[in-house]
Amino acid sequence: MVLLRTDTHRHIRVVRQENQAKSTLNASQVLASLTVSLCSMVVGFASAYTSPALPSMNSPGSPLSVSEEEGSWIGSLMPLAALIGGMAGGPLIESIGRKTTILATGIPFIISFILIAMAVNVQMVMAGRAIAGFCVGIASLGLPVYLGETVQPQVRGTLGLLPTTLGNSGILLCFIAGKYLNWQMLAILGACIPIPFLVCMLLIPETPQWYISRNKNKKAKKALQWLRGKNADVTQEFSEIEKANHVGKNEEMPGYLSLFSKMYSKPLLISMGLMLFQQLSGINAVIFYTVKIFKEAGSTIDENLCTIIVGIVNFLSTFIATGLIDKLGRKILLYASSATMAVTLITLGTFFNYKNSGADVSQYGWLPLASFVFFIIGFAIGFGPIPWLMMGEILPAKIRGTAASLATAFNWACTFLVTKTFSDLLRIFGADGAFWLFGGICLLGLVFIIFCVPETQGKSLEDIERNLTGVGKGPVRQVRRMSSIAHLKPLPMAI
Protein backbone atom coordinates (compact mmCIF):
# COMPACT_ATOMS: atom_id res chain seq x y z
CA MET A 1 0.00 0.00 0.00
CA VAL A 2 2.82 2.41 0.90
CA LEU A 3 4.62 1.50 -2.33
CA LEU A 4 1.44 2.15 -4.31
CA ARG A 5 1.01 5.55 -2.72
CA THR A 6 4.65 6.41 -3.44
CA ASP A 7 4.25 5.46 -7.11
CA THR A 8 1.02 7.44 -7.31
CA HIS A 9 2.61 10.54 -5.84
CA ARG A 10 5.60 10.14 -8.12
CA HIS A 11 3.27 9.85 -11.12
CA ILE A 12 1.38 12.97 -10.05
CA ARG A 13 4.66 14.90 -9.73
CA VAL A 14 5.73 13.77 -13.20
CA VAL A 15 2.39 14.83 -14.70
CA ARG A 16 2.60 18.20 -12.95
CA GLN A 17 6.14 18.72 -14.24
CA GLU A 18 5.06 17.83 -17.78
CA ASN A 19 2.09 20.19 -17.62
CA GLN A 20 4.30 22.93 -16.20
CA ALA A 21 6.82 22.36 -18.98
CA LYS A 22 4.09 22.55 -21.61
CA SER A 23 2.74 25.74 -20.05
CA THR A 24 6.19 27.33 -19.98
CA LEU A 25 6.82 26.11 -23.49
CA ASN A 26 3.71 27.73 -24.87
CA ALA A 27 4.27 30.97 -22.96
CA SER A 28 7.84 31.32 -24.16
CA GLN A 29 7.04 30.64 -27.80
CA VAL A 30 3.96 32.86 -27.73
CA LEU A 31 6.07 35.71 -26.36
CA ALA A 32 8.74 35.21 -29.04
CA SER A 33 6.18 34.89 -31.85
CA LEU A 34 4.11 37.83 -30.63
CA THR A 35 7.19 40.01 -30.28
CA VAL A 36 8.50 39.51 -33.81
CA SER A 37 4.92 39.76 -35.09
CA LEU A 38 4.72 43.29 -33.65
CA CYS A 39 7.10 44.14 -36.47
CA SER A 40 4.36 42.93 -38.81
CA MET A 41 2.03 45.57 -37.41
CA VAL A 42 4.60 48.23 -38.31
CA VAL A 43 4.92 46.72 -41.79
CA GLY A 44 1.14 46.65 -42.25
CA PHE A 45 0.78 50.26 -41.14
CA ALA A 46 3.61 51.36 -43.45
CA SER A 47 2.12 49.43 -46.38
CA ALA A 48 -1.31 51.01 -46.00
CA TYR A 49 -0.10 54.54 -45.17
CA THR A 50 -0.36 55.94 -48.71
CA SER A 51 -4.05 55.02 -49.03
CA PRO A 52 -5.40 57.63 -46.56
CA ALA A 53 -2.31 59.89 -46.65
CA LEU A 54 -2.10 60.74 -50.36
CA PRO A 55 -5.57 62.37 -50.59
CA SER A 56 -4.82 64.26 -47.36
CA MET A 57 -1.63 65.74 -48.81
CA ASN A 58 -3.62 67.71 -51.38
CA SER A 59 -6.31 68.87 -48.94
CA PRO A 60 -6.73 72.59 -48.11
CA GLY A 61 -4.14 73.80 -45.60
CA SER A 62 -1.65 71.06 -46.38
CA PRO A 63 1.94 72.31 -46.76
CA LEU A 64 2.41 69.90 -49.66
CA SER A 65 0.93 69.63 -53.11
CA VAL A 66 1.48 66.23 -54.68
CA SER A 67 1.08 65.69 -58.39
CA GLU A 68 -0.31 62.43 -59.80
CA GLU A 69 3.16 61.34 -60.94
CA GLU A 70 4.68 62.16 -57.54
CA GLY A 71 1.85 60.30 -55.83
CA SER A 72 2.56 57.18 -57.87
CA TRP A 73 6.22 57.34 -56.82
CA ILE A 74 5.30 57.81 -53.16
CA GLY A 75 3.12 54.71 -53.39
CA SER A 76 5.59 52.59 -55.34
CA LEU A 77 8.88 53.55 -53.67
CA MET A 78 8.17 51.27 -50.74
CA PRO A 79 8.04 47.99 -52.74
CA LEU A 80 11.03 49.11 -54.84
CA ALA A 81 13.08 49.76 -51.70
CA ALA A 82 11.73 46.52 -50.21
CA LEU A 83 13.20 44.63 -53.17
CA ILE A 84 16.63 46.05 -52.27
CA GLY A 85 16.03 45.43 -48.57
CA GLY A 86 15.12 41.81 -49.22
CA MET A 87 18.37 41.30 -51.12
CA ALA A 88 20.35 42.94 -48.31
CA GLY A 89 18.47 40.98 -45.64
CA GLY A 90 19.91 37.63 -46.72
CA PRO A 91 23.54 38.45 -45.89
CA LEU A 92 22.44 40.34 -42.76
CA ILE A 93 20.55 37.47 -41.13
CA GLU A 94 23.56 35.24 -41.73
CA SER A 95 26.21 37.68 -40.51
CA ILE A 96 24.63 39.49 -37.55
CA GLY A 97 21.78 37.13 -36.72
CA ARG A 98 18.04 36.87 -37.19
CA LYS A 99 17.02 38.75 -34.05
CA THR A 100 19.58 41.53 -34.51
CA THR A 101 18.53 42.02 -38.14
CA ILE A 102 14.84 42.30 -37.24
CA LEU A 103 15.64 44.56 -34.26
CA ALA A 104 17.75 46.80 -36.50
CA THR A 105 14.66 47.79 -38.51
CA GLY A 106 12.97 49.46 -35.53
CA ILE A 107 14.88 52.77 -35.40
CA PRO A 108 14.87 53.28 -39.20
CA PHE A 109 11.10 52.70 -39.19
CA ILE A 110 10.72 55.49 -36.63
CA ILE A 111 13.06 57.78 -38.59
CA SER A 112 11.11 57.15 -41.79
CA PHE A 113 7.80 58.25 -40.26
CA ILE A 114 9.36 61.26 -38.51
CA LEU A 115 10.89 62.31 -41.82
CA ILE A 116 7.45 62.14 -43.46
CA ALA A 117 5.75 63.98 -40.60
CA MET A 118 8.27 66.85 -40.82
CA ALA A 119 8.27 66.94 -44.63
CA VAL A 120 8.24 70.37 -46.27
CA ASN A 121 8.57 68.94 -49.77
CA VAL A 122 7.71 65.76 -51.65
CA GLN A 123 11.33 64.61 -51.68
CA MET A 124 11.31 64.21 -47.88
CA VAL A 125 8.18 62.07 -48.11
CA MET A 126 9.80 59.92 -50.78
CA ALA A 127 12.94 59.53 -48.65
CA GLY A 128 10.82 58.40 -45.71
CA ARG A 129 8.95 55.88 -47.84
CA ALA A 130 12.21 54.53 -49.26
CA ILE A 131 13.64 53.97 -45.75
CA ALA A 132 10.42 52.28 -44.64
CA GLY A 133 10.41 50.07 -47.74
CA PHE A 134 13.99 48.99 -47.17
CA CYS A 135 13.03 47.90 -43.64
CA VAL A 136 9.91 46.13 -44.93
CA GLY A 137 12.08 44.10 -47.31
CA ILE A 138 14.40 43.05 -44.51
CA ALA A 139 11.47 42.16 -42.25
CA SER A 140 9.75 40.10 -44.96
CA LEU A 141 12.82 37.87 -45.04
CA GLY A 142 13.81 37.95 -41.37
CA LEU A 143 10.43 37.20 -39.77
CA PRO A 144 9.80 33.85 -41.51
CA VAL A 145 13.35 32.69 -40.77
CA TYR A 146 13.12 33.59 -37.07
CA LEU A 147 9.72 31.95 -36.60
CA GLY A 148 10.71 28.89 -38.62
CA GLU A 149 13.76 28.35 -36.39
CA THR A 150 12.12 29.00 -33.01
CA VAL A 151 8.55 27.69 -33.14
CA GLN A 152 7.91 23.97 -32.71
CA PRO A 153 5.90 22.16 -35.40
CA GLN A 154 3.17 21.27 -32.89
CA VAL A 155 2.20 24.94 -32.44
CA ARG A 156 3.43 26.40 -35.71
CA GLY A 157 -0.07 26.42 -37.22
CA THR A 158 -1.41 28.62 -34.42
CA LEU A 159 1.58 30.88 -33.83
CA GLY A 160 2.27 31.17 -37.55
CA LEU A 161 -0.99 33.09 -37.84
CA LEU A 162 0.22 35.91 -35.58
CA PRO A 163 2.31 37.84 -38.16
CA THR A 164 -0.56 38.03 -40.64
CA THR A 165 -3.08 38.87 -37.90
CA LEU A 166 -0.98 41.73 -36.52
CA GLY A 167 0.05 42.83 -40.02
CA ASN A 168 -3.59 43.15 -41.03
CA SER A 169 -4.27 44.86 -37.69
CA GLY A 170 -1.70 47.47 -38.70
CA ILE A 171 -3.47 47.99 -42.03
CA LEU A 172 -6.84 48.33 -40.27
CA LEU A 173 -5.39 50.73 -37.69
CA CYS A 174 -4.00 52.90 -40.49
CA PHE A 175 -7.36 52.98 -42.28
CA ILE A 176 -9.26 53.88 -39.09
CA ALA A 177 -6.74 56.52 -37.97
CA GLY A 178 -6.61 57.92 -41.51
CA LYS A 179 -10.28 58.84 -41.29
CA TYR A 180 -9.56 61.25 -38.43
CA LEU A 181 -5.90 62.25 -38.85
CA ASN A 182 -4.14 64.14 -41.63
CA TRP A 183 -1.03 62.72 -43.25
CA GLN A 184 1.32 64.39 -40.75
CA MET A 185 -0.44 63.17 -37.61
CA LEU A 186 -0.84 59.74 -39.20
CA ALA A 187 2.94 59.62 -39.72
CA ILE A 188 3.51 60.57 -36.06
CA LEU A 189 1.27 57.66 -35.05
CA GLY A 190 3.33 55.44 -37.34
CA ALA A 191 6.50 56.57 -35.56
CA CYS A 192 5.06 55.45 -32.20
CA ILE A 193 4.07 51.92 -33.28
CA PRO A 194 7.63 50.47 -33.44
CA ILE A 195 8.36 51.40 -29.80
CA PRO A 196 6.64 48.36 -28.16
CA PHE A 197 8.29 46.15 -30.76
CA LEU A 198 11.75 47.52 -29.89
CA VAL A 199 11.22 47.02 -26.16
CA CYS A 200 9.87 43.48 -26.46
CA MET A 201 12.64 42.39 -28.86
CA LEU A 202 15.14 42.88 -26.02
CA LEU A 203 13.36 40.12 -24.07
CA ILE A 204 13.66 37.28 -26.57
CA PRO A 205 16.75 35.29 -27.62
CA GLU A 206 18.50 34.79 -30.93
CA THR A 207 17.64 31.54 -32.73
CA PRO A 208 19.57 28.44 -31.61
CA GLN A 209 20.36 27.61 -35.25
CA TRP A 210 22.22 30.87 -35.81
CA TYR A 211 24.20 30.47 -32.59
CA ILE A 212 25.22 26.95 -33.62
CA SER A 213 26.22 28.15 -37.09
CA ARG A 214 28.62 30.52 -35.32
CA ASN A 215 29.93 27.76 -33.02
CA LYS A 216 28.29 29.36 -29.97
CA ASN A 217 26.82 26.13 -28.65
CA LYS A 218 26.38 27.24 -25.04
CA LYS A 219 24.36 30.26 -26.08
CA ALA A 220 22.42 28.10 -28.52
CA LYS A 221 21.39 25.64 -25.82
CA LYS A 222 20.49 28.46 -23.46
CA ALA A 223 18.29 30.06 -26.15
CA LEU A 224 16.62 26.74 -26.93
CA GLN A 225 15.98 26.12 -23.23
CA TRP A 226 14.34 29.56 -22.93
CA LEU A 227 12.12 28.87 -25.93
CA ARG A 228 11.06 25.41 -24.73
CA GLY A 229 10.75 26.22 -21.04
CA LYS A 230 13.08 25.73 -18.10
CA ASN A 231 11.70 22.27 -17.27
CA ALA A 232 11.78 20.95 -20.84
CA ASP A 233 14.34 18.38 -21.94
CA VAL A 234 15.98 19.90 -25.02
CA THR A 235 18.81 17.38 -25.35
CA GLN A 236 17.39 15.51 -28.34
CA GLU A 237 16.24 18.64 -30.19
CA PHE A 238 19.57 20.35 -29.60
CA SER A 239 21.39 17.29 -30.93
CA GLU A 240 19.22 17.30 -34.07
CA ILE A 241 19.96 21.00 -34.68
CA GLU A 242 23.69 20.35 -34.32
CA LYS A 243 23.47 17.40 -36.72
CA ALA A 244 21.50 19.38 -39.30
CA ASN A 245 24.04 22.19 -39.13
CA HIS A 246 26.91 19.72 -39.62
CA VAL A 247 25.19 18.16 -42.66
CA GLY A 248 24.44 21.58 -44.12
CA LYS A 249 28.11 22.57 -43.92
CA ASN A 250 29.21 19.48 -45.78
CA GLU A 251 26.55 19.72 -48.48
CA GLU A 252 27.46 21.67 -51.59
CA MET A 253 24.66 24.05 -52.48
CA PRO A 254 23.96 24.92 -56.12
CA GLY A 255 24.41 28.43 -57.45
CA TYR A 256 21.81 30.64 -59.09
CA LEU A 257 22.55 29.33 -62.60
CA SER A 258 21.61 25.79 -61.61
CA LEU A 259 18.11 27.01 -60.70
CA PHE A 260 17.34 27.20 -64.41
CA SER A 261 18.58 23.71 -65.19
CA LYS A 262 16.10 21.23 -66.63
CA MET A 263 15.81 19.50 -63.27
CA TYR A 264 14.87 22.57 -61.22
CA SER A 265 13.31 24.94 -63.75
CA LYS A 266 9.77 23.51 -63.56
CA PRO A 267 9.14 23.97 -59.80
CA LEU A 268 10.88 27.36 -59.88
CA LEU A 269 8.77 28.61 -62.80
CA ILE A 270 5.57 27.35 -61.15
CA SER A 271 6.46 29.24 -57.96
CA MET A 272 7.33 32.42 -59.86
CA GLY A 273 4.16 32.09 -61.95
CA LEU A 274 2.06 32.01 -58.80
CA MET A 275 3.91 35.10 -57.53
CA LEU A 276 3.30 36.84 -60.86
CA PHE A 277 -0.46 36.25 -60.89
CA GLN A 278 -0.67 37.07 -57.17
CA GLN A 279 0.65 40.58 -57.75
CA LEU A 280 -0.86 41.22 -61.20
CA SER A 281 -4.27 40.58 -59.69
CA GLY A 282 -3.98 44.22 -58.58
CA ILE A 283 -4.09 43.56 -54.83
CA ASN A 284 -1.55 46.23 -53.96
CA ALA A 285 -3.26 48.80 -56.14
CA VAL A 286 -6.39 48.10 -54.10
CA ILE A 287 -4.56 48.45 -50.76
CA PHE A 288 -2.41 51.48 -51.63
CA TYR A 289 -5.10 53.49 -53.47
CA THR A 290 -8.31 52.43 -51.71
CA VAL A 291 -9.42 55.95 -50.75
CA LYS A 292 -8.64 57.33 -54.21
CA ILE A 293 -10.61 54.58 -55.95
CA PHE A 294 -13.71 55.09 -53.82
CA LYS A 295 -13.46 58.86 -54.28
CA GLU A 296 -13.38 58.50 -58.06
CA ALA A 297 -16.22 55.98 -57.95
CA GLY A 298 -18.47 58.63 -56.41
CA SER A 299 -19.63 56.05 -53.91
CA THR A 300 -22.58 57.03 -51.75
CA ILE A 301 -20.66 55.72 -48.74
CA ASP A 302 -17.88 57.86 -47.24
CA GLU A 303 -14.60 56.75 -48.84
CA ASN A 304 -12.73 56.60 -45.53
CA LEU A 305 -15.50 54.47 -44.02
CA CYS A 306 -15.22 52.20 -47.05
CA THR A 307 -11.52 51.69 -46.41
CA ILE A 308 -12.24 50.79 -42.79
CA ILE A 309 -14.77 48.18 -43.92
CA VAL A 310 -12.26 46.81 -46.42
CA GLY A 311 -9.64 46.67 -43.64
CA ILE A 312 -12.01 44.76 -41.33
CA VAL A 313 -12.80 42.25 -44.09
CA ASN A 314 -9.08 41.94 -44.77
CA PHE A 315 -8.45 41.20 -41.08
CA LEU A 316 -11.25 38.65 -40.74
CA SER A 317 -10.35 36.93 -44.00
CA THR A 318 -7.11 35.81 -42.36
CA PHE A 319 -9.09 33.35 -40.27
CA ILE A 320 -11.14 32.12 -43.25
CA ALA A 321 -7.95 31.26 -45.12
CA THR A 322 -6.51 29.44 -42.13
CA GLY A 323 -9.62 27.31 -41.73
CA LEU A 324 -9.77 26.24 -45.39
CA ILE A 325 -6.21 25.96 -46.65
CA ASP A 326 -5.53 22.45 -45.30
CA LYS A 327 -9.01 21.03 -45.95
CA LEU A 328 -10.14 21.70 -49.51
CA GLY A 329 -6.85 21.39 -51.38
CA ARG A 330 -4.66 24.04 -52.98
CA LYS A 331 -6.05 23.96 -56.51
CA ILE A 332 -9.71 24.21 -55.49
CA LEU A 333 -8.98 27.31 -53.42
CA LEU A 334 -6.94 28.80 -56.26
CA TYR A 335 -9.83 28.12 -58.67
CA ALA A 336 -12.27 29.87 -56.33
CA SER A 337 -9.83 32.72 -55.72
CA SER A 338 -9.17 33.40 -59.41
CA ALA A 339 -12.83 33.23 -60.35
CA THR A 340 -13.96 35.47 -57.50
CA MET A 341 -11.31 38.11 -58.20
CA ALA A 342 -12.02 38.05 -61.95
CA VAL A 343 -15.77 38.49 -61.48
CA THR A 344 -15.42 41.30 -58.92
CA LEU A 345 -12.82 43.19 -60.97
CA ILE A 346 -14.87 42.92 -64.16
CA THR A 347 -17.93 44.08 -62.23
CA LEU A 348 -15.99 47.03 -60.84
CA GLY A 349 -14.72 47.90 -64.32
CA THR A 350 -18.28 47.77 -65.69
CA PHE A 351 -19.44 50.14 -62.94
CA PHE A 352 -16.76 52.69 -63.85
CA ASN A 353 -17.56 52.26 -67.54
CA TYR A 354 -21.22 53.16 -67.00
CA LYS A 355 -20.26 56.03 -64.72
CA ASN A 356 -17.77 57.47 -67.22
CA SER A 357 -20.31 57.21 -70.04
CA GLY A 358 -22.59 59.59 -68.14
CA ALA A 359 -25.09 57.05 -66.86
CA ASP A 360 -26.72 57.60 -63.47
CA VAL A 361 -25.11 55.08 -61.12
CA SER A 362 -26.18 56.72 -57.86
CA GLN A 363 -28.47 53.82 -57.00
CA TYR A 364 -25.50 51.48 -57.36
CA GLY A 365 -23.22 53.45 -55.06
CA TRP A 366 -22.88 50.37 -52.87
CA LEU A 367 -21.42 48.30 -55.72
CA PRO A 368 -17.73 49.42 -55.46
CA LEU A 369 -17.64 48.53 -51.77
CA ALA A 370 -19.32 45.16 -52.35
CA SER A 371 -16.88 44.39 -55.17
CA PHE A 372 -13.89 45.31 -53.01
CA VAL A 373 -15.13 43.16 -50.13
CA PHE A 374 -15.55 40.07 -52.29
CA PHE A 375 -12.25 40.79 -54.06
CA ILE A 376 -10.41 40.84 -50.72
CA ILE A 377 -12.14 37.62 -49.61
CA GLY A 378 -11.29 35.97 -52.92
CA PHE A 379 -7.64 36.99 -52.64
CA ALA A 380 -7.42 35.90 -49.00
CA ILE A 381 -8.68 32.36 -49.55
CA GLY A 382 -6.34 31.56 -52.41
CA PHE A 383 -3.84 33.80 -54.15
CA GLY A 384 -2.90 35.56 -50.93
CA PRO A 385 -1.46 32.69 -48.88
CA ILE A 386 -1.12 29.77 -51.30
CA PRO A 387 1.78 31.03 -53.47
CA TRP A 388 3.86 31.29 -50.27
CA LEU A 389 2.61 27.95 -49.01
CA MET A 390 3.43 26.17 -52.28
CA MET A 391 6.81 27.86 -52.49
CA GLY A 392 7.74 25.86 -49.38
CA GLU A 393 6.23 22.68 -50.81
CA ILE A 394 7.29 22.50 -54.45
CA LEU A 395 10.83 23.91 -54.36
CA PRO A 396 13.33 21.03 -54.05
CA ALA A 397 15.20 20.87 -50.76
CA LYS A 398 18.65 21.47 -52.24
CA ILE A 399 17.66 24.77 -53.89
CA ARG A 400 14.89 25.85 -51.51
CA GLY A 401 16.78 28.73 -49.91
CA THR A 402 18.23 30.18 -53.11
CA ALA A 403 15.06 29.65 -55.15
CA ALA A 404 12.84 31.11 -52.41
CA SER A 405 15.04 34.21 -52.33
CA LEU A 406 14.67 34.61 -56.09
CA ALA A 407 10.90 34.07 -55.98
CA THR A 408 10.53 36.60 -53.16
CA ALA A 409 12.58 39.20 -55.06
CA PHE A 410 10.42 38.56 -58.12
CA ASN A 411 7.32 39.14 -55.99
CA TRP A 412 8.62 42.53 -54.84
CA ALA A 413 9.51 43.47 -58.42
CA CYS A 414 5.94 42.70 -59.51
CA THR A 415 4.63 44.69 -56.54
CA PHE A 416 6.62 47.72 -57.65
CA LEU A 417 5.42 47.32 -61.24
CA VAL A 418 1.76 47.28 -60.22
CA THR A 419 1.91 50.14 -57.72
CA LYS A 420 4.04 52.36 -59.95
CA THR A 421 1.95 51.90 -63.09
CA PHE A 422 -1.53 51.89 -61.53
CA SER A 423 -1.97 55.67 -61.78
CA ASP A 424 -0.72 55.50 -65.38
CA LEU A 425 -3.20 52.72 -66.14
CA LEU A 426 -6.02 54.84 -64.72
CA ARG A 427 -4.94 57.78 -66.88
CA ILE A 428 -4.43 55.80 -70.10
CA PHE A 429 -7.21 53.20 -69.93
CA GLY A 430 -9.49 54.73 -67.34
CA ALA A 431 -10.64 52.98 -64.19
CA ASP A 432 -12.85 50.64 -66.22
CA GLY A 433 -9.99 49.55 -68.50
CA ALA A 434 -7.56 49.12 -65.57
CA PHE A 435 -9.92 46.86 -63.64
CA TRP A 436 -10.87 44.90 -66.76
CA LEU A 437 -7.15 44.37 -67.36
CA PHE A 438 -6.61 43.02 -63.87
CA GLY A 439 -9.73 40.86 -64.24
CA GLY A 440 -8.41 39.42 -67.50
CA ILE A 441 -5.08 38.61 -65.83
CA CYS A 442 -6.98 36.74 -63.10
CA LEU A 443 -8.65 34.63 -65.81
CA LEU A 444 -5.22 33.88 -67.29
CA GLY A 445 -4.14 32.90 -63.79
CA LEU A 446 -7.03 30.42 -63.70
CA VAL A 447 -5.77 28.83 -66.92
CA PHE A 448 -2.24 28.69 -65.47
CA ILE A 449 -3.54 26.86 -62.38
CA ILE A 450 -5.51 24.32 -64.43
CA PHE A 451 -2.63 23.30 -66.69
CA CYS A 452 0.57 24.05 -64.74
CA VAL A 453 0.05 23.93 -60.98
CA PRO A 454 0.12 20.50 -59.26
CA GLU A 455 -2.03 19.56 -56.30
CA THR A 456 0.19 19.11 -53.26
CA GLN A 457 -2.33 18.41 -50.51
CA GLY A 458 -1.57 15.22 -48.58
CA LYS A 459 1.64 14.48 -50.49
CA SER A 460 5.05 14.13 -48.95
CA LEU A 461 7.73 16.60 -49.94
CA GLU A 462 9.67 13.69 -51.47
CA ASP A 463 6.73 12.76 -53.71
CA ILE A 464 6.26 16.37 -54.82
CA GLU A 465 9.96 16.77 -55.61
CA ARG A 466 10.06 13.44 -57.48
CA ASN A 467 7.00 14.37 -59.57
CA LEU A 468 8.39 17.78 -60.52
CA THR A 469 12.06 16.94 -61.06
CA GLY A 470 11.88 13.27 -62.01
CA VAL A 471 14.60 12.37 -59.50
CA GLY A 472 14.84 11.46 -55.86
CA LYS A 473 14.46 8.21 -54.01
CA GLY A 474 13.58 7.25 -50.51
CA PRO A 475 10.62 6.30 -48.32
CA VAL A 476 7.48 8.39 -48.62
CA ARG A 477 6.44 10.15 -45.43
CA GLN A 478 3.30 12.12 -44.71
CA VAL A 479 3.75 15.80 -45.33
CA ARG A 480 3.47 18.02 -42.28
CA ARG A 481 0.83 20.70 -42.38
CA MET A 482 2.46 23.88 -43.63
CA SER A 483 -0.38 26.38 -43.55
CA SER A 484 1.63 28.55 -41.17
CA ILE A 485 4.23 29.18 -43.88
CA ALA A 486 1.52 30.91 -45.89
CA HIS A 487 1.05 33.44 -43.11
CA LEU A 488 4.65 34.37 -42.45
CA LYS A 489 4.85 37.27 -44.85
CA PRO A 490 3.00 40.06 -43.00
CA LEU A 491 2.25 42.23 -45.99
CA PRO A 492 -0.73 43.09 -48.17
CA MET A 493 0.67 40.64 -50.72
CA ALA A 494 -0.21 37.84 -48.34
CA ILE A 495 -3.43 39.01 -46.83
TrEMBL record:
Bilayer-spanning residue ranges: 30-51, 71-93, 100-120, 126-147, 159-178, 184-204, 268-288, 308-325, 332-354, 366-390, 402-422, 434-453
Name of the protein in its database record: Facilitated trehalose transporter Tret1-like isoform X3
Main location: membrane
GO annotations of cellular component type: plasma membrane
Keywords noted in UniProt: Cell membrane, Glycoprotein, Membrane, Transmembrane, Transmembrane helix, Transport
Gene: LOC112690060
Keyword Flavoprotein: no
PANTHER family per UniProt: FACILITATED TREHALOSE TRANSPORTER TRET1-1-RELATED, PTHR48021
Gene3D superfamilies: MFS general substrate transporter like domains
Domain Major facilitator superfamily (MFS) profile: 32-457
Signal peptide residues on this chain, from the entry's feature table: none
Keyword Membrane applies: yes
Membrane topology: Multi-pass membrane protein
A single GO molecular function term of this UniProt record: sugar transmembrane transporter activity
Family: Belongs to the major facilitator superfamily. Sugar transporter (TC 2.A.1.1) family. Trehalose transporter subfamily.
A matching Pfam family: Sugar_tr
Entry's localization field: Cell membrane
Matches recorded under InterPro entries: MFS_dom, MFS_ERD6/Tret1-like, MFS_sugar_transport-like, MFS_trans_sf, MFS_Trehalose_Transporter, Sugar/inositol_transpt, Sugar_transporter_CS
